[in-house]
Amino acid sequence: MTIFNFLIPKAKVVYVTTNHTVRQTLERMQAHGYTAIPLLNDAGTYAGTITEGDLLWFFKENTNLDIKKAEEYLITKVMRSRNNEAVNVSANLDMLMDLSLRQNFTPVLDDRHMFIGIVTRRDILTFYQQHASISDNEETFFNPTINKIMARRSIRKYTNEEVTYEDIETIVDAGHAAPTAVNRKPVHILILQEQDKRNELYSRHRRGQLISEAGVALAVYGDTTIEESDFLLNNDCSAAIQNMLIAIEALGLGGVWIGCKDEEWRNLVSEVYEVPKKYKLYGMIAFGHPNEVKEAHQNADPNKVHLNKW
Ligand SMILES: Cc1cc2nc3c(=O)[nH]c(=O)nc-3n(C[C@H](O)[C@H](O)[C@H](O)COP(=O)(O)O)c2cc1C
């Protein structure tokens, strides 16, 4: 999820520019029923927020004013009591949430500080209401961990934005935080960051497509000399993979589990990355900045939940 997912683009936003008059502003706000709207400079940068209250005080200070005279005053003559704080479109969602707690709408700017739209508090709340999985349970509705687990989907389309090494480290730490049988810790995680090598995988095997198209990929290996049970080694690696997929979601990234049942594929990855024979590949993850949005999971199918008796 990014700020883009919530953005109401400028073309659909009711705003005024510094060339508008007090009357035009009043009429625009009245026509659309808004109590506050963004004010833009001529060049399209964000200048502040005009509220009903600002206009009320302006009329109180200028008791000689009527609606006709209000035509003579530029909106810039009105003192603004507060300007809604703007956010850069590539800022993280936490920043947007923080601002949305304090203001009804948040202006969104691009890297050149141009106003590109707004995000309203109502849209954010509506989104969470629609996507919160267990909406009849208040405790889980507002539980960010449960919501991330339910929101995680397999994301297979990525933007070109680079994934930071800091994020990769956080994800790998989450993988290693997963439980392992008898606490043997047989899991190793190989980071496939270099593009050329990932391209080589794809040039030699069709399973490499997502891995070459993603921002980064991870390969999860089990040490067969530490955990001799293939069953448990598979469990250990799978727990690490799932932890990492949730961490990827929590960081605002998107990823997908790549199964590694095919021995030819496993041998190829191990050959290209020179992995010693005692490590077996159990699964991979391709991930990056998401370029697709999917619905969150809903409540579990009750036919697949068995309470005390099948
Ligand atoms: C063991 C395992 C192997 C998977 N292998 C692949 C794969 O090779 N390619 C792929 O695109 N998705 C793969 N997936 C992802 C599933 O297709 C996906 O989880 C499933 O369709 C449900 O969608 P969701 O993750 O969005 O809930 C795999 C998932 C699991 C658990």
Concise structural overview:
The protein has helices at residues 22-32, 52-61, 93-102, 121-131, 138-141, 144-151, 165-176, 195-204, 209-213, 230-250, 263-272; strands spanning 8-9, 16-17, 36-40, 46-51, 87-88, 105-109, 115-120, 187-192, 216-223, 254-259, 279-288. It has 310 residues and is of the alpha+beta class. Flavin mononucleotide is lined by residues 153-154, 156, 256-259.
Structural class: alpha+beta
Question: In what range is the share of β-strand residues?
Answer: 15-25%
Q: What is the element string, with H for helices and E for strands?
A: EEHEEHEHEEHHHHEHHEHEHE
Rg from C-alpha positions? Answer: 26 Å
Describe the structure.
- This protein has 310 residues and is α+β, with helices and mostly antiparallel strands.
- The chain has three domains: 3-127, CBS-domain, CATH 3.10.580.10; 132-152 and 295-304, no CATH class; 165-288, 3-Layer(aba) Sandwich (NADH Oxidase).
- Helices cover 36% and strands 19% of the residues.
- Helix 3 links the parallel strand 5 and strand 6.
- Helix 7 (165-176) crosses helix 10 (230-250).
- Residues 153-154, 156, 256-259 line the site of flavin mononucleotide.
